[in-house]
Task: inverse folding
């Protein structure tokens, strides 16, 4: 019998806000343990939560970006369980009335080759809801320490329908969510910092069956590649169990990305009763059309829409867009530069960014925002090359100087004397005459109609010009003299 | 002839302070001396910071000599129920769980009282986590009723009532979830006000049942209650359930709001279980209002019979969740006998909580459990809406309701300890008000033949405390119940 896998993902995304979701203390990563706390975060007796509007704005924006319906009322529930990372021993969350309902995530599957766009699909969402993050336990030999810095950070849970069937789809889904959230300025989605976390619900069923099989929840998929590997591993494990005549049990499993193995954490019988009930400390928030419209105005173009537009408008290859698109700032930088550079130069702009700029940034370990090269300067550089003023080798040197100093290319060319054209047209003409005279064989070939023979004259000229001759001018001068010869 | 210093009102004492007849320091010293004299018999305090009180009093005097007095409460000693946070002071909720806990922050009401210049001078005993009607559920021992030391002052804010009644404070704050201010006020011969839900910030009040809890004052007179209310009322950004509403000058309004009022007598509040002496005193009060030209009308609150059940589902459900934070991990009692994490939770909580708290946590956990939620919690919320609607329907006909506060006067310590249901019935007339979120106050309306105070309850309309206080003030002005004091 042939089986298919059915996969649903629960993705947690930390929302980037200045303060925590229910109190004023700051939110962030990498601070000394328990410094981002206050009486509310620590759940001291008598403290109360108060909603942070910025967090609600962010999740509504996320919902709008993913095409969700936004509920007219945002209501809060308490999810109750005891664990030391949860200061109140309940988590403020949303149970029966999530703020975002439905929605679609567009994904792109791997193409036939690296330079070919893959198939696109839309994965339906069930819901997105807002909750508070918990603290972190650090286990030592004889004790465990709790750091509440993360506790109370706004966290949204994006729940997909069980609508994916391969590890590649799950990988593409997570990538798309990450790109979309980064575009919206909602989260940096750095998995190493726990800003993006993923649990997967995986089952298998005979192809043609519509009922879902026994579900296994896979936890600790804490990098995007672990998501792909862990799911692939789990599907293989389930198929093996069934093939061996075994029966799958509903359970939660922990995936060890380093070892590439998983082990059972708990079975369904040990499942929690979270005793959800509406949080009496928080009033429901009404979300009206004006509020939504205001947030809609701040929504950027979605990554895939932008990619399609760049390909259509700038005639650049898919490969370049797939480098530019995941980084909103980089693709904006491309557009600004391409517009300044002028018609027909977009691909050159793309190449300079994808190759040279990213290489320099990578070597210097700098983000784009720290780059000293402005779109104007990069556009000018490309125009200088196009005009024949700069040769490729010289252009690379100018670019390196631009990256280091931020100076305009024209100034660098003048300062370093890198301009292609020799000042004396007579000198060029005499180099050309010398070269023709020194190579009668090539002259004969050219005269007999072999146009490419002209190239044989150019080497000695360039050598004489120490590489600075304008190739266009060299070509023109040679042709004029050859016609006379 | 004025009463002894320790039995005087805020109004009297602030006038004397303003006139330079007494300093805040002298008043506070007198209050400390009185506290030391009566406390061994009454046990109203969980803790008392004498040095801190004297520093606050001296600061008040300094303000006054600089011409910067903050008003009527400046220099007045005020005690707080030990569920309200004061920075640097113990905050125990009368529980072993928090026996060593010191709050690092102020409740909003604490900040407001400090801003008004009050001298905060003690943490008052109560039932553990405000759960009870006799203050016998305190982990630190019961409080006695100053009118009869063998009897309870009521609860849960029994310490707040007893301290004021005994002259160990000029005013106090309590909290009222099902009658915890009004019932002890009635049993101790005081004015006790439970404001509309949302009028007073709950930030810094240890939560028992969040949708029912409300802080309110105990005072000797309606005027003092008005002064206290004015000092603590108002919207607070730190409490989402606090309400944005104009705060009137409650004290000034006492004189401008005059009857006659239309008063409703809910027939369900005068049935079986009402002590005849209490019933008679309340009837007399009704007759007084009638004699003043008030229209008295019988009204019906048909869902009254469901109040107790509804309350014990909603309050315990919320309590089971609110008290989950007391786990021995970050603060509070932690067992010394834990082998693993589950042990830390189970033993710390088993050792730290008293029986009544455990009973309510278990009940509340049960009603929220999967499979029971709809039958209990959800249904209770629907009944709660009906109960509120009962009151709002009555207010189409009348301005306020008159009822007894407690069906019985102060009972003997230990009398109901073994019978939780009998104890719960003490709140039969007060619980509906919390479920409906309404303001209500208790004021003295006489004494039993044994000399025990009797309380009258006036129930008002949402955010119309000024009318409620004026109605009570009219009665109080015509009677002298609050000029009698316990012999201690």
Result:
């Amino acid at each position: 019998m042939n089986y298919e896998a059915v996969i649903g993902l629960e993705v947690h995304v930390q929302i980037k806000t200045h303060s925590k979701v229910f109190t004023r203390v700051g939110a962030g990563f990498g601070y000394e343990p328990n410094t981002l706390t206050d009486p509310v975060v620590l759940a001291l007796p008598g403290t109360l939560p108060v909603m942070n509007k910025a967090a609600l704005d962010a999740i509504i924006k996320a919902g709008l970006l993913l095409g969700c319906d936004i509920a007219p009322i945002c209501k809060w529930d308490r999810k109750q369980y005891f664990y030391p990372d949860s200061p109140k021993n309940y988590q403020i969350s949303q149970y029966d009335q999530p703020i975002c309902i439905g929605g679609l995530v567009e994904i792109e599957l791997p193409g036939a080759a690296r330079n070919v766009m893959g198939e696109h699909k839309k994965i339906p969402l069930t819901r997105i809801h807002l909750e508070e993050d918990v603290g972190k336990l650090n286990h030592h030999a004889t004790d465990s320490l709790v750091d509440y810095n993360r506790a109370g950070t706004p966290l949204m849970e994006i729940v997909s329908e069980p609508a994916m069937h391969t590890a590649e789809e799950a990988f593409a889904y997570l990538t798309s969510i990450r790109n979309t959230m980064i575009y919206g300025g909602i989260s940096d989605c750095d998995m190493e910092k726990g800003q993006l976390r993923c649990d997967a619900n995986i089952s298998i069923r005979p192809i043609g069956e519509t009922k879902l099989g026994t579900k296994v929840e896979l936890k600790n998929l804490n990098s995007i590649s672990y998501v792909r590997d862990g799911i692939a591993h789990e599907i293989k494990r389930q198929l093996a169990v069934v093939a061996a005549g075994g029966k799958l049990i509903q359970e939660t499993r922990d995936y060890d990305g380093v070892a590439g193995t998983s082990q059972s954490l708990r079975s369904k019988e040990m499942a929690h009763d979270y005793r959800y009930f509406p949080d009496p400390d928080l009033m429901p928030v009404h979300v009206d059309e004006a509020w939504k419209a205001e947030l809609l105005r701040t929504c950027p173009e979605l990554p895939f829409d932008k990619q399609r537009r760049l390909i259509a408008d700038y005639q650049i290859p898919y490969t370049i867009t797939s480098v530019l698109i995941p980084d909103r700032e980089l693709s904006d930088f491309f557009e600004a530069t391409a517009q300044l550079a002028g018609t027909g130069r977009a691909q050159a702009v793309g190449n300079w960014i994808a190759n040279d700029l990213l290489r320099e940034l990578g070597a210097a370990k700098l983000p784009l925002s720290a780059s000293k090269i402005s779109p104007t300067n990069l556009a000018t550089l490309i125009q200088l090359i196009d005009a024949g003023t700069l040769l490729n080798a010289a252009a690379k040197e100018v670019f390196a100087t631009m990256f280091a100093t931020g100076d305009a290319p024209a100034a660098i060319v003048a300062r370093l004397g890198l301009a292609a054209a020799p000042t004396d047209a007579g000198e060029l003409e005499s180099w050309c005459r010398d070269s023709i005279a020194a190579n009668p064989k090539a002259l004969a070939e050219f005269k007999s109609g072999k146009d490419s023979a002209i190239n044989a004259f150019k080497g000695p000229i360039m050598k004489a010009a120490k590489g600075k001759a304008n190739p266009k001018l060299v070509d023109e001068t040679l042709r004029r003299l050859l016609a006379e010869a | 002839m004025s009463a002894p210093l320790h039995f005087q009102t805020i109004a009297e004492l602030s006038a004397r302070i303003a006139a330079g007849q007494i300093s805040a320091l002298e008043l506070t010293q007198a209050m400390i001396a009185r506290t030391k004299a009566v406390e061994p018999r009454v046990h109203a305090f969980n803790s008392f910071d004498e040095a801190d009180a004297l520093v606050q009093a001296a600061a008040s005097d300094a303000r006054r000599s600089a011409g910067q007095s903050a008003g009527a409460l400046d220099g007045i000693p005020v005690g707080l129920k030990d569920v309200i946070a004061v920075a640097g002071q113990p905050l125990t909720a009368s529980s072993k769980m928090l026996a060593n806990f010191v709050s690092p922050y102020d409740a909003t009401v604490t900040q407001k009282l400090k801003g008004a210049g009050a001298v905060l001078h003690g943490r008052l005993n109560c039932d553990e986590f405000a759960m009870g009607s006799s203050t016998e559920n305190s982990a630190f021992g019961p409080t006695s009723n100053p009118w009869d030391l063998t009897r309870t002052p009521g609860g849960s804010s029994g310490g707040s009532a007893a301290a004021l009644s005994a002259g160990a404070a000029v005013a106090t704050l309590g909290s009222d979830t099902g009658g915890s201010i009004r019932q002890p006020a009635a049993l101790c011969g005081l004015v006790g006000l439970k404001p509309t839900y949302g009028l007073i910030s709950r930030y810094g009040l240890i939560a028992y049942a969040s949708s029912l809890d409300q802080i309110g004052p105990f005072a000797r007179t309606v005027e003092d209650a008005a002064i206290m209310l004015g000092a603590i009322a108002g919207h607070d950004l730190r409490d989402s359930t606090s309400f944005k509403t104009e705060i009137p000058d409650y004290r000034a309004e006492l004189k401008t709001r005059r009857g006659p009022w239309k008063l409703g007598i809910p027939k369900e509040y005068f049935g079986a279980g009402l002590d005849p002496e209490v019933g008679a005193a309340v009837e007399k009060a009704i007759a007084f209002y009638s004699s003043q030209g008030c229209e008295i009308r019988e009204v019906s609150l048909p869902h009254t019979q469901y109040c107790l059940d509804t309350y014990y589902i909603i309050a315990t459900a919320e309590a089971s969740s609110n008290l989950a934070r007391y786990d021995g991990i970050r603060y509070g009692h932690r067992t010394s006998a834990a082998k693993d994490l589950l042990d830390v939770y189970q033993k710390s909580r088993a050792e730290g909580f008293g029986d009544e708290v455990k009973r309510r946590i278990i009940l509340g956990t049960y009603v929220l459990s999967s499979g029971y939620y709809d039958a209990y919690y959800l249904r209770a919320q629907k009944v709660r809406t009906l109960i509120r609607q009962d009151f709002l329907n009555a207010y189409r006909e009348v301005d306020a309701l008159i009822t007894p506060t407690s069906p019985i006067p102060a009972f003997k310590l230990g009398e109901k300890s073994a019978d939780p249901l009998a104890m719960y019935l003490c709140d039969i007339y007060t619980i509906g008000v919390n479920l409906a979120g309404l303001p209500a106050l208790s004021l003295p309306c006489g004494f039993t033949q044994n000399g025990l105070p009797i309380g009258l309850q006036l129930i008002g309309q949402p955010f119309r405390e000024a009318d409620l206080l004026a109605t009570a003030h009219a009665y109080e002005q015509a009677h002298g119940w609050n000029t009698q004091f316990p012999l201690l």
Notes: DSSP finds 15 helices and 17 strands in chain A. Residues 425-484 of chain A form a domain with the Arc Repressor Mutant, subunit A fold (CATH 1.10.10.410). The CA atoms of residues 376 and 485 of chain A lie 45 Å apart. The interface with chain B takes residues 39, 42-51, 78, 80, 82, 84, 87-90, 146, 273, 275-277, 280-283 of chain A (CB under 8 Å).
